[in-house]
């Protein structure tokens, strides 16, 4: 068995086809086919079935894939360790992020990181909070921005993101300056497909209710358009709100008491970080600790119910003391587990 065979196998899983895998690896499709054929011959099992509709993994193929990812991840670690020793920082860093974080705060983080690692290749994987956690667990990505807390991951808290109710202008509550969650208990929701739903269900259960979900939407602009049409109301984090609302008549109203989600950066618990991942985590911690994101993320949020500009800086840094100014502080690690990433574990 060769690392190149595992690499081809993982590339097929990630791209969904031999053709796209060959393109991603910059090799011929015949080379990919030969690698898989040799791997199956060495193992004595069939790993996948090819058809006009794509590639379908066998049951044993799905189990082998997890181990193949581990092999590819280990090979990348070895290569980066050698590159770091030669003071030539290169390689690939795979980052999992939500669409809202990628659009708002990730550019500044990448600017800071790439200033020290100019030759590193960046792969962005956009997904939901649950998908990012699963990708971390399966070695699909090296680091990910996740909602906290997260079991089985080593995490560093970065920021708090305030939640806002978004209502159509004709709604009976549209004139309110602030809302309590119990006032929305009988409303129909257009729910963002993200970790917001889990958070809202938890809050509703405190008052003995469940949210009434009429629709779900991935894209925030589609979600806001549905609210504008009166199909329901929604709750979204400040980070996901566009700087200019697609429908200016919408009412963006905070909660009282305020409702926030905590965001952090995570790696797989007990996984050995690559040098690039360690540097990325350290850069994120530095920006959060220095409040750079809080300053750079100030922007208008449209008008609230009273015609005033909605809060320009709904972000708050992590809980008091959660991202202290000392080196290595603010680490949140799953109980009874340790991280092999020095940037995550330096406080322990």
From TrEMBL:
<dbReference type="InterPro" id="IPR000847">
    <property type="entry name" value="LysR_HTH_N"/>
</dbReference>
<protein>
    <submittedName>
        <fullName>LysR family transcriptional regulator</fullName>
    </submittedName>
</protein>
<keyword id="KW-0805">Transcription regulation</keyword>
<feature type="domain" description="HTH lysR-type">
    <location>
        <begin position="1"/>
        <end position="58"/>
    </location>
</feature>
<dbReference type="GO" id="GO:0003700">
    <property type="term" value="F:DNA-binding transcription factor activity"/>
</dbReference>
<dbReference type="Pfam" id="PF00126">
    <property type="entry name" value="HTH_1"/>
</dbReference>
<feature type="region of interest" description="Disordered">
    <location>
        <begin position="291"/>
        <end position="348"/>
    </location>
</feature>
<dbReference type="InterPro" id="IPR050950">
    <property type="entry name" value="HTH-type_LysR_regulators"/>
</dbReference>
<dbReference type="InterPro" id="IPR005119">
    <property type="entry name" value="LysR_subst-bd"/>
</dbReference>
<dbReference type="InterPro" id="IPR036388">
    <property type="entry name" value="WH-like_DNA-bd_sf"/>
</dbReference>
<dbReference type="InterPro" id="IPR036390">
    <property type="entry name" value="WH_DNA-bd_sf"/>
</dbReference>
<keyword id="KW-0804">Transcription</keyword>
<comment type="similarity">
    <text>Belongs to the LysR transcriptional regulatory family.</text>
</comment>
<dbReference type="Pfam" id="PF03466">
    <property type="entry name" value="LysR_substrate"/>
</dbReference>
<keyword id="KW-0238">DNA-binding</keyword>
<dbReference type="GO" id="GO:0003677">
    <property type="term" value="F:DNA binding"/>
</dbReference>
<dbReference type="GO" id="GO:0005829">
    <property type="term" value="C:cytosol"/>
</dbReference>
